[in-house]
Amino acid sequence: MFRSVPHPGQAVPDRKSTRKPGLRNRAQALLEVNALVEALAEADAFDPLRPTNRPPPALWLDNPDYLKEARTLLAELREFREVLRDGDKPGTGRTAGKRGVVLLASATVKFIDGYADALGKGAAALTIGAAGALLFQIGASKDILESLWDHLRSGR
């Protein structure tokens, strides 16, 4: 929904937030993480030896190091998705705390730094954009987001 913007001089209501510090929008973060999980899972499931008429997925590369890093990121994203779905419910043993955000951000930035050039402009831009949106929604630091945006600006 659209929010109304206060007029100059109008007081902005003090809204108490029940969300965890850093997590901006759980529903939007779930959408972003689902998009990345689906794209990486499609690449992970691709078998180049199985004859099909379909081209390889956009995020698939015939590079063992890349595929290993993609699987690592996929595992981190799946775990984080479960944390977001649980909503930090007591008794689940999972939390979307600062440590989880740092681990996910680290895996994401490592993947992007290592393979943005190899993915090609279209797939790289979409992957960087989706990763950046996710990291923004979960409250990643400005420094982490800056490194991702640098990739977009440089055209890699």
What structural class do helix, strand and pairing data support?
mainly alpha
Number of discrete helical segments: 5
Number of strands: 0
Query: Segments where pLDDT lies below 50 for 5+ residues?
Result: 1-21
Mean pLDDT: 80
- Total domains: 1
Mind telling me the C-alpha Rg? 18 Å
Q: For the report, how would you describe the main beta sheet? A: none
Which series of helices and strands comes N to C? HHHHH
Strand percentage lies at under 5%
The coarse overall form would be: globular
Helix content: 55-70%
The N- and C-terminal alpha carbons lie at a distance of 34 Å
Briefly say what this structure is.
This protein has five helices and no strands. Helix content is 61%, strand content 0%. It has one domain.
SSE blueprint:
Blueprint: H1 26-45, H2 64-86, H3 98-119, H4 121-137, H5 142-154
Question: How is this structure best described in words?
Answer:
With 156 residues, the protein is mainly alpha-helical. It has one domain (26-45, 61-154). Helix content is 61%, strand content 0%. It is built from 5 helices and no strands. The protein has helices spanning 26-45, 64-86, 98-119, 121-137, 142-154. The protein starts with 25 loop residues before the first helix and ends with a helix. The relative contact order is 0.14. Residues 1-21 have low confidence and may be disordered.
List the main descriptive attributes of the protein structure presented here.
globular, mainly alpha, disordered N terminus, 156 residues
